[in-house]
Amino acid sequence: MSSSPFAPLLPGVPKASGKSASADGLLPVMPVPKDAPRPFERHPKHGSIAAKWTYRDAAGEVLGYACRFDRADGGKTYQPLTLFREDATGALKWKWKAWLDPRPLYGLDRLAARPTAPVVLCEGEKAADAIGELVPEYVGVTSPNGSKSAGKADWTALRGRNVVIWPDADTPGREYADAAARLILASGAASVALIEPPANAPEGWDAADALAEAWPQVRVLGLVAGARPLVRPEAASPSPKAPAASSEPATGESGKRGPGRPPWHDTLLALTADFELWHTPKKMTFASVPMPEGHRENWRLSSEAFSRHLSLKAFEDTGRIPSKAAIEETVRILEAKAIAYGPCRKEWLRVGQQGGNLYLDLGCDRWHAVEIAPGKTPRILESHNLPFVRPEGMLALPVPEFGSERGVEELRQFVNVSTETDFHLIVAWVLGAMRYASEYPLLILNGEQGTGKSTLSRILRSIFDPHAAEILAPPKEDLELFVLAQHTHLVVFDNLSKIEGWMSDGLCILATGGAKASRAMYTNDGLSILEAKRPVILNGIPSLADRPDLAQRSITVRLRPVPEEERITSEEIQRRWEDAAPRILGTFLEALSTGLKTVEDVKLDKLPRMAGFARFVVAAAPGLGLDGAALCDAYLANQNELADVAFDNSPVAVAVLAMMESVPGGEWIGTATQLLDALSHADVTTERTRNSFGWPKTPQLLGTQMVRAAPALRKRGIDARQRKSGNIVWEIRKA
């Protein structure tokens, strides 16, 4: 007979157990031969079978059945159904009785199919089946005949396996788990750990109940990962034969562990004992990792950087390199623990806010950050537990210098604008973009060729969010726009010739915050959600804020041509910037402190769009030696100018204004179809306008453009509203 625990049993021959036959002259037959009689469908006392579980050997051949019967009083009765051969006659007969000892485990076929998978032992076949749905990476097994029969089972099939025991939440369940653990360790299991059922679990609660309660996989993994490891007794009896010594290395390129070593995930988990695990509201998981230099770094658990760090720690601790599978298994356990037990924290990208203070990640190797408190000189934190994260490409800021006498005027040499007001608008935008804010106005740099639009875009990025990808080409679709926003606090797009409708909508969402949802890859019903709220810089030759909704969220400044005698090389600009950058950064950080101190006291006579931005700029302006009220007036004037430009670029808004000049009584009411006909009249619009790309060709498109134009029309005394009365009707009136 084969020594393998998975070797199929010979037909008609019971596994060696010290007993050749039962007392009544019956020999168990395993596996069941093809010519065996059909098993019973009913029990003479208990009636029809309510549920049946098939025991199989490693080859998948049937060994017998465990059957459940429902009693009239609502209880349940279980009976084994096994094939026997009569010793006297040789006849095959099914009997309602168990196999001879030792009895086979339920799930031998699963164990054989997945020889390296970890195992979960449950009490009962239904619970063992539930494991396959709750945590598919584990194999679920059980022993036959209930909680008092652990000593009658053949546990050798678990030799060399990592086993987790999931006991029923009652006294018999715990007694079964304790007895099984001793026997499994004695049979040569690599490791055994014991799950502690949840404190609020009802009596008898098990894995099948967790499945019925729709436990998510991460919660189950957390329960399994928290299992308490059991120590192997020094003198376990009976003890398996120790494996022969080998002259081969304990581990090779595959990272497989050698004889007597703990499983890799136990070693790796021990190495992460001082990591702080946490998760975000979107269930992204991170580890706050202590570094030898004394600071902590936040790494996403699914990142390559974290896997490399874990491999390095393992090599430094053991001299061995774990396999990719061991790393992946450990990461899955850590992810489950981070979600189940770790705190929920919103991740910060370059900037954050907590307890009334602002924080800026300096991006250096030691993960230093700047704390900006209200009315206080900002200070550099060399050690902290702030939830900053660092996507690939983030670059370091210079160490800020505070108390500069030059102040914000030192920035002027790098800003090639036409007017003092435009310079102050750029300064105001920088203040707003450095905050962890509820809204960020877009900055649009306009100018003809040779005005230094790209250079200024790079300079402004370098003030507070330098990145390896300094400026980017425009995205091709809205999803790409939101993907880019996941990797940088400041988004900069270079050399735009126009902004398509979808991109205008996406930029509006980035300005005030929102999300883009799409189907998750490789799933039918999974949802991938990308959230973002970011400051944005756009540059280009033409006017870019043509649509009213984008114009209301933007600041536009115009750059002047650079005379030949003022031009300098890019290398000289960079040299000057590297010298000035620490002082400019320190100046803006001090202004942020001023803004935090007084922003709650700021009252504006008129609240513009992006009112939170306007209030903060007014509060912070004195920290730069500027007049906050004058700065707010400049912002309002810029918004009005952009609104005028957007109005003039909207053929529908211009047409409505022209139509209302001649409408009797100053009121027009009709459907979108009727409105399109009225606006298309030769007395209202020219043929050239009607044939232009921006003119709506259908009533539906007209309705969309009317909604966008409504705010600009109201500023010109035209109130345009939709009303649903059977059909959708437009009501347009002179205010």
UniProtKB/TrEMBL annotation:
Annotated segments matching region Disordered: 233-265
Biased composition, class Low complexity, residue ranges: 233-250
InterPro entries assigned to the protein according to its UniProt record, in alphabetical order: TOPRIM_DnaG/twinkle
CDD domains attached to this UniProt entry: TOPRIM_primases
Gene3D superfamilies in the cross-refs: 3.40.1360.10
Descriptive protein name: ATP-binding protein
Species of the source: Methylobacterium gnaphalii
